[in-house]
Amino acid sequence: MELKLAGEKLLLSEEKIIYWSVQQTAFIADLHLGKTTHFRKSGIAVPPAIIKAEIDRIENIISKFRPKRIFFLGDLFHSDLNHEWNIFNQFLEQHTKIEFILIKGNHDILNESVYKLSHLKIEKEPYQLNPFILSHHPLKIDTAEKEIINLCGHLHPGISIKGKGRSYLSLPCFYQDEKQLILPAFGRFTGLAKIKPKKGSSVFAVLNDSIKKIV
Q1: Burial, 75: exposed, middle or buried (Cβ in 10 Å; 0-12, 13-18, 19+)?
Q2: pLDDT score at 47
Q3: For residues 134 and 151, is the Cβ–Cβ distance under 8 A?
Q4: Domain count, the chain
Q5: What are the tens digits of pLDDT across the range 112-159?
Q6: What is the pTM of this model?
């Protein structure tokens, strides 16, 4: 689904990303790589194949959109250093022609020396990319700044859709208000935070093969 913000056309994709075609730039939030290993160390059985499946999804995005630049809007890697980082780093090394930038989130706690050894550029929030401000956490934007929109993550927004009878379906979603567009969590091992849309906001639910505006 195409959305026009601050004079720019953005594609909200069922891959749970935003693609800015004019700039050949993709935005991805909240992968939480490394989380599966973190849980297995705690004795919780989690399939080790999840990390490969998540990276395969990024590979599919690269094949589909051919971006020159990918921004990770925080919480790329969930925990302390583990072998999943090596798998992700191998993926980065296979795509050296793409610029990968991480806007650090609260879970991005790896030592700076680890990041320096990877094909990954690190930036702190807020990061200016006119006419957008990139961050992990949702920012408070001065309403007087009419052409500034905050692209962010962190909340893992989800929405419940009523089905037949008393049934409900919970779906990840993009959540937009006047100055902000919050991305759904890309990682599938993250959970959802149900949102209550405010007056004037918009909710775009992520279906298997499309985006549907709910509010």
Answers
A1: buried
A2: 56
A3: yes
A4: 1
A5: 888 888 899 999 999 999 999 999 999 988 766 667 899 999 999 999
A6: 0.91
Class of residue 53 by CB neighbours under 10 A (exposed 0-12, middle 13-18, buried 19+): exposed
Sequence-ordered list of residues with C-beta below 8 angstroms from that of 44, at least 6 positions apart, any chain: none
| Amino acid code (one letter) for 82 | N
Using only C-alpha atoms, the chain has a radius of gyration, in whole angstroms, of 17
Contact between residue 121 and residue 92 where contact means Cβ atoms under 8 Å apart: no
pLDDT of residue 147: 78
Give the residues across from 162 on adjacent strands: 168
Given the structure tokens 């859709």, which residue do they identify? 161
Q: Which tokens go with 71?
A: 């921004």
Helix axes 50-65, 83-93, angle to 10 degrees: 20
Residue-wise pLDDT for 37-74, tens only, equals 555 455 544 556 778 889 999 999 999 999 999 999 99
Range of the domain at 107: 2-213
Angstrom distance (rounded) from CA 153 to CA 102: 12
More confident residue, 81 or 85: 85
CATH number at residue 25: 3.60.21
CA proximity to 95, closest of 190, 26, 32: 26
Single-letter amino acid code for the residue at 209: D
